[in-house]
Amino acid sequence: MPATSEFAVQLPFPLVELRDERVAGAGVRLLLKRDDLLHPDVPGNKWRKLKNNLAAAREQGHRRLLTFGGAYSNHLRATAAAGKHFGFGTVGVVRGEEHRPLNESLAYAERQGMRLTYLDRATYRRKTEPDVLAGLAARFGPCYVLPEGGSNGLASRGCAELPAEITEDFDVICCACGTGATLAGIAASLRPGQRALGFAVLKGDFLDREVRRLQQEAFATETRTWSLDSDFPFGGYAKRTAELDAFIADFQARHGVTLDWVYEAKMMYGLLQRITAGTFAPGSTVVAVLC
Predict the structure, then answer these.
(1) At residue 105, what are phi and psi to the nearest 5 degrees?
(2) What is the C-alpha to C-alpha distance for residues 117 and 115, in angstroms, rounded to an integer?
(3) What domains appear along the chain, each with residue ranges and CATH number?
């Protein structure tokens, strides 16, 4: 769906080289792809995952979007903002019980006009089953249903556009992984010799299957150009530790960039750990996608 005059997405956004002695000492060049700056309300991979789905919803005649997420879901925020910009009503189905006052993420979504509803965790695990979806449709009417995190084949196709925007040669491109759609798309559009590395921000062994499933849905094939690093979830999704908070503060002081603690900080922490451990050969160029 093309951006409106009120919704200007900055593409492509320039790369920024991260000058850090830990990186230089390993003989590696590290570039930041600042997708987090593409739009203040629908940044980075959130826009890439939503844009094709918004177009499909419009083509199918829908006026309301319904989607799923946890209490700290950036996807719920972005869907609420995109819905407001493009004239869709939005419903956010939140995992767990309602807690007031709302946290900043859910309060923002509500301010953008999103109607929030809640499913207990047992029912939420069945959110894709016909009876659960039928119950939601009975309450909210016909909706274009977006999966949790906005992750489907259309989303991965949007993310597949990212590597072509990078004008510098690189060997490895890294992203944070919650549902796998971004990694699935990026990995499907790499040039020969390039690889994608995803850093899992939550516990569990399902991401490998999800990336392969999403590639099949989006591109009718699977690539062998990607891998997952699951060693840095810091306790699980939307969980943080004093060590992670200290890393965020140090990164901001060094580089003037405030990392999102749910996704970006875990990726950057893990990536710097891998660089200093010698995972990447000297002379390698690595791109880290902030989104």
Answers:
(1) -65, -50
(2) 7
(3) 15-40+152-290 (3.40.50.1100), 63-142 (3.40.50.1100)
CA end-to-end span of the chain: 20
Instruction: Work out the burial of residue 202: count CB atoms within 10 Å of its CB; fewer than 13 is exposed, 13-18 middle, 19 or more buried.
Output: buried
Phi, psi for residue 116 in degrees, rounded to 5: -100, 140
List Cα–Cα distances, 125 to 31, 93, 275, in angstroms. Answer: 38, 12, 37
pLDDT, one tens digit per residue, over 245-261 is: 999 999 999 999 999 99
**pLDDT (0 to 100) of residue 6:** 53
pLDDT tens figures, 175-186: 999 999 999 999
Peptide bond into 142 cis (omega under 30): no
Determine the Cα–Cα distance for residues 148 and 145; give it in Å rounded to an integer: 9
Alpha carbon 187 to chain centroid, angstroms: 14
Considering the chain, what percentage of its residues have pLDDT values greater than 70? 96
Mean pLDDT, to the nearest integer, of 229-243? 95
Number of CB atoms found within 10 A of residue 254's CB: 13
Q: For 90, list phi and psi in degrees, rounded to 5.
A: -135, 140
0.85 exceeded by pTM: yes
Q: Which amino acid is at 86?
A: F
Q: What is the mean pLDDT of residues 169-175?
A: 98
Torsion angle of alpha carbons 177, 54, 47, 237, nearest 10°? -30
